[in-house]
Each structure stands twice: as C-alpha cells, then as structure tokens.
Amino acid sequence: METTNITVDALTNDVAEKPTVRAKVRIHKYTGKENHMISLVEASILTRTYRESEERGAVKGNFFGRYIFERILAQDGCVGIRSYFAAYDDGSPTLVHVGIDENGNDMIYGVLGDGGFPCPPFCGQDNILNADLGDRLIPVRKNNDMFSGLENHGITIAEAKNDVSNHRKEKDSNAIKGIYFSRDLYKKILAQDGCVGIRFYYAEEGELPTFVLVGADSKGNDLLGITGDGGFPCPPFCGGDSAL
C-alpha cells in the first residue's frame, strides 16, 4: 500500500478553501401579546435616570395622538409597533413609529408616524414621570385642552429615513436604534377613559436607552393607571434590514 504524507500546512489550506457555513439564526416570533407592563415606581426611576443625564430644559418625551397608533395597528399582520429614535434637522429629538409583523420586520410601505409634541412645553401637570417632586405638592394648572387624539402624525418613508439618520450621525453602529412594544400594550393604554394619545418618555435602564409609555388626556396630563416599558430593543431584535 502506498503511503501518503499529509502535512499540517496541507490540512490547514484544505480547510481554508472550504466555504464558510453560517449558523442559522433563530427568528424571534412576535405575538402582539408580549407583556410590557411595569409599576409607576419603576417607570419613575427610569425616567428620572434619563433626566439626570440631560441638561435642564431638555426634551423629556413626545406625545402622539391615538389616531396614528390605531392606523398602524389596523394593518393586516401588524402585531405591534417599533419606535425608532430620531431627530429633526435642527437636532431636536423625536420618534418614528412603524408597524411590525410577527417576524419583527418593519412594515415600511404601510403607515409611518412622526411629528410628536415635545415635553416641554406640552407636558400637562407635573408628576413623578416628568419632574423631581420631592415632598412638594403637585401644582394644579388650569390648562385648556391641547390635544384631540386626531393629530396628523403621518409621514413619508423619505422623511422617516431622514429623521432616523439625523439621530444616528454620531452614534455607535451597535447603539440601540429603536424599541418594539406589543399591540396589547397599546390597546390597554388607549382603552383608558379620556385617553387621547400616548406620551413616550425618554428613559434609561442601566445606561441603555428605553421608553416609558403612558396615556395622556386632552389637557396633556399623564394617565398614570397603566405604564409600559420592557420593550424589545433593536439590536438585537430588528427583523430584516429596512430603510429605517
């Protein structure tokens, strides 16, 4: 029998020439019933952590009328909404909302939302989500109706792409881009008496950005009965690549 001498270099070269087999990535299935509920105390800690890292007078959150969420969630196959961190051309923060299917993919050719009302100045009464109250009483403001719930937050994909790009100009490529919340959370918040929309408070959890969601009435006051957090961040829960 003829003996064949095989060197270590030959084996190494043979392995190097073989195509790389990529591991299959499990796709996370979304149901729309994910539980994002948290207590008011937990929510206040998250929003306070964010405020402590920002300058006084910075935008704390954005209000969006209920109509945009109802339109997004009414799309066939929509199980929730991903809200992307975004910014206008002048640098002021906002959010871009897009529907999500069960595979976590952005429904970018459907309804998109942006153009929220920033707090401040559209804050309503002070509460533990937007102010450091200590032991003082919450001031009673005789403010008039400021929201109807029918505000038009619809935007084009080009506008949405511009706004998310503005936010990411100086961000690390692995920074959190957006956060998903289930349709179940939106339904519960919007079902509250007097709720005309949702305010997204900017928050931090262990130095990672997140949102606290709370309903708001026509005067802009927060409805503190239901608060939501614990969304799925992108990355890693991004679905397929999209323009957003």
Main structural class: alpha+beta
What radius of gyration results from the CA coordinates? 22 Å
Oligomer classification:
single chain
Q: Largest sheet, if any?
A: 6 strands, antiparallel
> What is the strand arrangement across the widest sheet?
1-10-9-8-2-6
Sketch the topology as an H/E string, one letter per element.
Answer: HEHEHEEEEHEHEEEE
Number of β-strand runs: 11
Features:
alpha+beta; 6-stranded antiparallel β-sheet; disordered N terminus; 11 strands; single chain; about 20% helix; about 240 residues; about 25% strand; 5-stranded antiparallel β-sheet
What is the gist of this entry?
The protein is 21% helix and 25% strand. It is of the alpha+beta class.
Characterization of this structure:
With 244 residues, the protein is an alpha+beta fold. It is 21% helix and 25% strand. It has five helices and eleven strands, in the order αβαβαββββαβαββββ. It has helices at residues 8-17, 40-53, 66-73, 157-168, 183-190; strands at residues 37-38, 61-65, 80-87, 93-100, 112-113, 117-119, 178-182, 197-205, 208-216, 222-228, 232-234. The strands form two sheets. It has a six-stranded antiparallel beta sheet with strand order 1-10-9-8-2-6, with helices on both faces. A five-stranded antiparallel beta sheet has the order 5-4-3-7-11. It is globular and about 45 Å long. It starts with 7 loop residues before the first helix and ends in a 10-residue tail after the last strand.
